[in-house]
Design a protein that fits this description.
Blueprint: H1 7-108, E1 113-121, E2 124-131, H2 134-146, E3 150-160, E4 169-177
Antiparallel strand pairs: 1-2, 2-4, 3-4
Length: 186
């Protein structure tokens, strides 16, 4: 038995194992390459999908920028319209001022007070007139203070003038007109 030669059997066995190892190595390499290719394709799909999402978000952002620009323009137009409405409202109030003033002037001026001139500038009314007695001008000031649309009556000057046959005192008065509250009836 000592003459048995195991070398060819070992070499056959080694060749078979080597062949089996190469087959396993080739299969493992193919599986690894397949997994890598599948992973690479999946990653590229995810990148493409994310790029599509990013593009969608950019498009929507552009749309929102356009809408915001339009809103800004609308707000500017609204502000301009409100300014115009306020201007028209102030013109309407100023238009009614003279009518209201002349309607209520006979109630404001007591007997014995005679007006020479009446001048309206902005929200101020300058009155120049003559009176028979100082208390009548004081009554006129009280009447003005009782009105809700007139305030701060101030006598600029009052002096006695030499007028024949009756001695009259000349006076100068300034009144302020209150701005009308929107929606209030005049």
């Amino acid at each position: 038995m000592s003459n048995i030669n195991l070398l060819p059997w070992r070499e056959n066995e080694r060749a078979a194992r080597k062949k089996q190892f190469m087959v396993i190595l080739a299969v493992a390499s193919l599986i690894t390459v397949a997994v890598m290719l599948a992973g690479n394709m999946w990653i590229h799909q995810q990148i493409t999908r994310q790029q599509q999402r990013n593009q969608f978000l950019q498009n929507e952002t552009v749309k929102l920028d356009v809408i915001l620009g339009e809103m800004r323009n609308i707000k500017e137009q609204r502000h301009k319209l409100l300014e115009r409405v306020a201007l028209i409202d102030s013109f309407q109030q100023r238009r009614n001022l003279s009518v209201r003033l002349f309607n209520q002037l006979p109630e404001l001026v007591p007997p014995g007070v005679y007006l020479s001139s009446l001048n309206v500038v902005g929200n101020q009314i300058d009155i120049v007139g003559k009176t028979e007695a100082y208390p009548r001008v004081a009554n006129m000031i009280r009447d003005v203070e009782s009105r809700d649309w007139l305030y701060e009556p101030r006598i600029s000057s009052i002096f006695t003038s030499d007028t024949d046959p009756i001695a009259l005192s000349q006076f100068s008065m300034r009144l302020n007109v209150r701005e009308q509250i929107p929606g209030s009836v005049q």
